[in-house]
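2024-03-11 09:14:02 INFO worker-7 job=invfold-0412 stage=load source=structure_tokens
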């Protein structure tokens, strides 16, 4: 999960008017949004809870579900060109201000919790060279991550954006090692290793095929976060139709890379061996084939890639509440800008939250995998309501001309919504409880924003939803306090 390997078009950070994005840039935006730290840890993350058969089924479900989401964003980009803020705007337009707020809030949570996971994985990778960093959650790693966080904060406050040469380096650092990995591992692939326990049922700890498939769902979602990248910046596209093409190209490119990385690795090391690897697990797999230089290559590539991602998603995470504040969805103070046009208040709050969670990782010994599970679960709300909005438009005929085919968009919208709900089920109670705890405080900010604009705070259905969210959050706190459920 990273933002684009092009200059991120953050509002007012540059004084010149932003140039329009062409197809190539939009495609890079989508691919860059998805290819981040996740792919480097896919072999272990997938094999930790599933065998080859379940992993194949998991990728098949993901391919269908995410393709439906691709079609949703393609359809909405052309049918609702006036909505330029992607998932957040679609949820608000389709289901009212409270749902829209929670979509913006959830997207923001996913962004900054994702940044915490980046900090953990960077120092986990560096532990290959400096063992004191451990799994990225030792005091040395947290100190290093904190320094990195506030250095990036200072850079953003200064109005510094990624130069083209840095973006090129980050792009090569991401894609080239992955392509090399796929090529080398494909040559070294051993069918007898891959088929050793094809169903995974020989390992009692993995459970049934269904349980194994469920264990892969948040992993596959994590590596596809960013599929909405072109949609989020649709207002900057030179041609609206390029958004659909860029989204499809990005999706199929990344799907191929991800599936090959996870499945080919099972032909190098067995499922238990892969499941026990330290992340970034691609390093361990390549080391098993070519020796230590393979691990060195992957660890260096990940560090460069994720530091770039850290900067990009810091900009994006600060931008989300900043934009929402401009239209009254979030409190006005989130909209404050520095003299250089940087969303300084939003940036400070975002990075204080990242810092707080970094400290939590030290005391809770939180792992990269636990953090990205939370980030993945948090983003489900905007994804689900994007699909539901597409289905709603098709059902009502809004934005459709006489004679337009509505069956395809309706099917895609319903399928994307069902896929999102399936992911909620697959996430399990621990991560949903953690998300409820993170979502519930947002109600205070929603009320604040509504009163600032002298609008009715809740309609009856929204009030019921708000009460239910608070109740679930309180239950989650109790369950975690007693140790019945633990996410971190």
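2024-03-11 09:14:09 INFO worker-7 stage=emit residues=488
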């Amino acid at each position: 999960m990273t933002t684009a390997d092009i200059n991120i078009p953050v509002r007012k950070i540059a004084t010149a008017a932003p140039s329009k994005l062409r197809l190539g840039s939009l495609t890079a935006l989508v691919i860059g949004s998805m290819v981040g730290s996740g792919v480097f840890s896919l072999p272990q993350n997938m094999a930790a809870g599933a065998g080859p058969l379940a992993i194949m089924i998991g990728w098949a479900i993901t391919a269908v579900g995410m393709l439906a989401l691709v079609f949703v964003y393609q359809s909405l980009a052309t049918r609702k060109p006036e909505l330029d803020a992607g998932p957040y705007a679609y949820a608000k337009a389709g289901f009212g201000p409270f749902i829209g707020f929670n979509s913006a809030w959830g997207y923001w949570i996913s962004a900054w919790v994702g940044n915490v996971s980046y900090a953990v994985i960077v120092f986990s990778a560096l532990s290959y060279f400096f063992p004191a960093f451990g799994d990225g959650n030792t005091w040395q790693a947290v100190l290093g991550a904190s320094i990195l966080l506030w250095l990036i904060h200072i850079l953003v406050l200064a109005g510094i954006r990624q130069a083209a040469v840095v973006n090129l380096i980050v792009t090569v650092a991401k894609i080239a090692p992955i392509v090399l990995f796929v090529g080398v591992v494909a040559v070294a692939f051993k069918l007898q290793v891959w088929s050793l326990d094809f169903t995974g049922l020989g390992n009692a700890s993995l459970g049934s095929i269904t349980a194994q498939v469920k264990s892969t769902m948040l992993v596959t979602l994590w590596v596809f976060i960013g599929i909405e990248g072109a949609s989020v910046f649709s207002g900057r596209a030179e041609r609206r139709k390029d958004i659909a093409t860029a989204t499809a190209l990005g999706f199929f490119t990344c799907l191929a890379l991800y599936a090959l990385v996870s499945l080919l690795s099972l032909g190098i090391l067995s499922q238990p061996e892969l499941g026990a690897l330290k992340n970034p697990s691609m390093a361990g797999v390549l080391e098993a084939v070519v020796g230590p230089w393979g691990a060195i290559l992957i660890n260096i590539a990940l560090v460069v890639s994720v530091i770039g991602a850290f900067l990009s998603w810091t900009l994006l995470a600060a931008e989300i509440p900043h934009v929402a504040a401009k239209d009254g969805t979030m409190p006005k103070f989130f909209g404050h800008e520095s003299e250089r046009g940087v969303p300084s208040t939003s940036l400070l709050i975002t990075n204080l939250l990242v810092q707080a969670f970094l400290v939590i990782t030290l005391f809770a010994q939180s792992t990269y995998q636990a953090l990205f599970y939370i980030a993945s679960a948090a983003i489900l709300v905007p994804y689900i309501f994007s699909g539901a909005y597409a289905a709603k438009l098709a059902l009502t005929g809004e934005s459709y001309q006489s004679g337009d085919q509505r069956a395809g968009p309706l099917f895609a919208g319903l399928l994307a919504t069902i896929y999102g709900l399936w992911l909620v089920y697959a996430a399990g109670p621990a991560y949903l409880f953690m998300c409820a705890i993170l979502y519930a405080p947002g109600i205070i900010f929603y009320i604040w924003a509504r009163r600032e604009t002298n609008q009715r705070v809740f309609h009856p259905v929204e009030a019921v939803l708000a009460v239910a969210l608070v109740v679930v959050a309180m239950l989650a706190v109790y369950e975690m306090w007693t140790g019945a459920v633990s996410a971190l």
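2024-03-11 09:14:09 INFO worker-7 stage=report msg="The domain at 23-429 is CATH 1.20.1740.10 (Amino acid/polyamine transporter I)."
2024-03-11 09:14:10 INFO worker-7 job finished
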